[in-house]
Amino acid sequence: MRIWDINPGYLNRNSLLGEHRELHAIVSIILNNKKGYSKHPETLRWSEFGWALKKRHDLLSSEMALRGYNDRTPVTLSTNEGKWPDIYIDSSYEQFNILKKKYIDKEPGRIPFPKSAQELWSHHKYSVMARDYNLYKQIGKDISSSENDQEFNAYAELFVNILRQVPGDKSMRNTIQHMWGYVSKFGKITGKELYNMNQLTMLNKIQVRAVENKVEFLMNSTALSELKIWL
């Protein structure tokens, strides 16, 4: 059993669908008091965090939808709202290493594995912007392009924690408008239509245009799928 903590965009098809199945198995254990795998480390770390498990499921579902899969199996757990487990089976950094080895000669995920802290940052920029614009600017100034393991490890953990925060309405809107700039040339929309468009509709259009036109920066962004679960 494995529930990853890094963004599902890094998972390939088999890992994405596999985690989805295993998450539902954990949900079934929790809801039905099943004994099988009840003592598994993944079950134990999520058992008191139903709300967080639902959010992780929503992340998987959103990423699956971006890749053309329909999820008809919602999770309705709600215990410990707003709280996430602080125990990791493997650190965020180690999870990248595990997947890199696992994917040798296999299909990759939507987002390529980052080779440096700078590449990791480029994948998470808009997700951070949606939570804290000042932090977004600060990280942009501070992060280096070195391949220093300690720096990568620290930012990998930081980004997992940031993406667990609920975005603010103003910062979310600002971020989605920034993302729109990458796809605005693909199809005409009047200024009035754009002004009256709600955030979810705009993000849906961004997703469609990014996928259809292979907009690399957005296709390599965690925000392309994860922001949707908060709208």
What can you tell me about this protein's structure?
The protein has 231 residues and is mainly alpha-helical. It has 2 domains: 1-113, Endonuclease V (Orthogonal Bundle), CATH 1.10.440; 114-231, no CATH class. The protein is built from 12 helices and no strands. Helix 5 (117-129) runs parallel beside helix 7 (149-162).
Compact summary:
With 231 residues, the protein is an all-alpha fold. Helices cover 57% and strands 0% of the residues. It has 2 domains: 1-113, Endonuclease V (Orthogonal Bundle); 114-231, no CATH class.
Attribute tags:
Endonuclease V, 2 domains, mainly alpha, 0% strand, 231 residues
**What is the count of distinct domains?**
2
Rg for CA atoms:
18 Å
SS field, number of helical segments: 12
Model regions low in confidence, pLDDT < 50 over at least 5 residues: none
Dominant shape:
globular
Mean pLDDT: 95
Sequence of secondary-structure elements: HHHHHHHHHHHH
Beta-strand content: under 5%
Helix and strand composition category: mainly alpha
* Span of the ends, CA to CA: 29 Å
Measured as a percent range, the helix fraction is 55-70%
Tally of extended strands? Answer: 0
Largest sheet: none
